[in-house]
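Section 5: illustrative case.
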């Protein structure tokens, strides 16, 4: 099984989409087509928090991801986060995001992953891990924060 890379970034721009693209660039995944999946980690997968993705394949390829994403325009903070937990049977990602600080997002992803663990009482889990990306939002800009779990490498679309 390929590695699942956890990447993160933030960016600003004149529009919400431009700031999202800038955040994806900061995470190293802006040249791919992202396809979201729910939040289950296959058994035996390695999860590696790398920060910025390296070369994951051809430009325009399809990347399978779990994504936490938030965009804000009001001054303050914007934060996105993922928590993950693994067992020999598989694992879970939980995401949360919003125009809030990192501590709030961390609390919410840990609550979510805890609830997911309770739904799987037969699995023996390791300790949860968390990554939160937070950015200051300045007046007059769009700011986006992202954290993504990227499954493997890009598959060609054509």
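Designed sequence:
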């Amino acid at each position: 099984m390929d590695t699942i890379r956890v990447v993160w970034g933030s960016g600003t721009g004149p529009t919400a989409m431009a700031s999202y693209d800038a955040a994806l660039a900061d995470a190293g995944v802006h040249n791919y087509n992202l396809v979201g999946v729910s939040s289950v980690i296959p058994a035996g997968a390695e999860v590696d928090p790398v920060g910025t993705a390296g070369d994951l394949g051809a430009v325009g390829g399809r990347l399978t991801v779990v994504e936490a994403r938030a965009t804000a325009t009001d001054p303050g903070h914007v934060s996105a986060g993922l928590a993950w937990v693994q067992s020999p049977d598989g694992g879970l990602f939980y995401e949360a995001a919003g125009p809030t600080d990192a501590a709030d997002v961390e609390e919410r992803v840990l609550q979510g992953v805890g609830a997911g663990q309770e739904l799987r009482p037969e699995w023996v889990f390791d300790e949860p891990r968390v990554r939160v990306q937070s950015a200051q939002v300045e007046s007059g800009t769009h700011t986006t924060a992202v954290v993504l779990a990227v499954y493997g490498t890009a598959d060609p679309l054509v």
